[in-house]
Design brief:
binds iron/sulfur cluster; alpha/beta; 149 residues; globular
């Protein structure tokens, strides 16, 4: 059966930085007929829940993977290593599950596709991908933002 990787928070897992979920009412329709692999890269990278909000600084997830940007919490703590570790584990889970597509949480510094916050913690979006979205894309897994969130 065709499989799809899904951000765990979209399936009702309370793994977001604020300890809440982001369940999407339209997710069931989007994954109908496919096996779902739920995954939270930030939890898998070793970060606690709840945790401080984090944003990409100096570029997007591709730049983080290339070593030219960082992920920092609003306290200034550098959590780049945890985000990269989580992304690698997400890729491993996607491969293990035979996923060719990922439906991810928009705007997340890990899972977002096409737009992420700009690192100012002021709510401004810029073009770019989260760290996990970037790694999945680089490895041939089509990443789409989930509908309804
Ligand atoms: Fe959801 Fe992804 Fe953030 Fe985990 S890392 S809480 S799955 S958006």
């Amino acid at each position: 059966m065709d499989s799809v990787l899904v951000s765990a928070c979209l399936r009702g897992v309370p793994c977001r930085y604020d300890g809440r979920d982001k369940a999407s009412p339209r997710l069931a329709e989007a994954v109908a007929g496919r096996e779902v692999v739920s995954f939270c890269p930030e939890a898998a990278g070793g970060l606690p829940t709840p945790r401080r909000p984090a944003e990409l600084v100096g570029g997007d997830g591709h730049d983080v993977l290339d070593g030219t940007a960082r992920v920092v919490e609003d306290t200034g703590r550098d959590v780049t290593a945890a985000f990269v570790a989580g992304a690698r584990r997400a890729l491993a889970a996607a491969r293990h599950g035979g996923c060719t597509e990922a439906l991810m949480m928009p705007r997340s510094p890990s899972c977002g596709r096409g737009a992420v916050y700009d690192g100012s913690f002021g709510g401004q979006l810029v073009a770019g991908d989260g760290v996990t979205a970037a790694l999945l894309e680089r490895n041939g897994i089509a990443v789409r933002n989930a509908p309804g969130v």
